[in-house]
Request: fold
Amino acid sequence: MTTFTVAGKSGPFTHAPNSVQKTMNTVLLALLPAILFNAYLFGLPGIFLFAVTVLSCVVVEAACLLIGGRSVSATLIDGSAVLTGVLLAMSLPPWAPWWIGGLGAVFAIALAKHTYGGLGQNVFNPAMVARVALLISFPVAMTAWVTPHPLFSLHTPSLHEALLITFGTGTPDTVSSASALGLIKTELSRGVPVSEAMKQVPDLMDMAMGYRSGSLGETSAVLILLGGVFLLLRGVISWHIPVGVIGSLFLMASLFHAINPDRFTGGLFHITSGATFLGAFFIATDYVTSPVSNLGKLVFGIGCGILTWVIRTFAGYPEGMAFSVLLMNAMTLIIDQYTRPRVFGRTRSGEPLQHKEKNP
Reply:
């Protein structure tokens, strides 16, 4: 029989079916097919970078816990650092050098998480803080995309070549290429019509299946979508944020494409390119940095989708998911203020309800 110490705690008590560790493990399980597919698609350099990023996040987490005088083993076991490392790795170029993953771990864990007090206290999504900080600081390394080099194929790098790519000289220029969003943005800036620019990117089926250049989270849209549906079925996330993100992005892109098809790409292109599904199901739905109520989640998701389209279309960066999530993270407290449900027994302003006695 297990004995619990409840001194100083007020009842009543209830058993929660989920825990932080269980939730993190479920999310990791949902990402596993996409992780394995990307390991196959980009070979040993992608596997090495993935391992470096995840291990770095765990090491930085342990160091922050030690500095803060907190239990390392009890906190590391919750899996939050591992999940942050996985999401960060999936937002990086597959053949990026090792120091990108290591520095990204410092940005994500030390700066974006423990500066605010650790798990559950951070205002911004740690993985997205790291991605944006790296993209602004090292734009060349963060945009060195490569075409897929599947394991066991004639084009896959050998062990020696993979070690040089990750820990040595970096990505060879001969295999560098642009992502679909980057290529379209470049062509449109030159005045090329959308119909002509789209001929230079993979078709929608290849883009959905993942056989294209991009980050580890951009090249497995179907598998990430299936993982997101798995989280919905398990009740880990609700539909409000994913539907808000994908629906608003699709509608904005489709509307402006209908208005000017030579200037704006269509809705299907936007939702199958970039990190749309990864952001909608796995990043924007972060419990800590997203609103509490269902209405708030829907508003949050719609904001992410609209901002993603605006940044992709008019800003200097081809992908806008990370920026849009961080901007909406900053709005979460305001959204909660206006959409949170009334606490039972209190008015909407937070004052206790005044019960009037009935006259006999």
Summary: The first strand starts at residue 145 and ends at 146. Residues 7-15 have pLDDT under 50 and may be disordered. Strands lie at 145-146, 176-177. DSSP finds 16 helices and two strands in the chain.
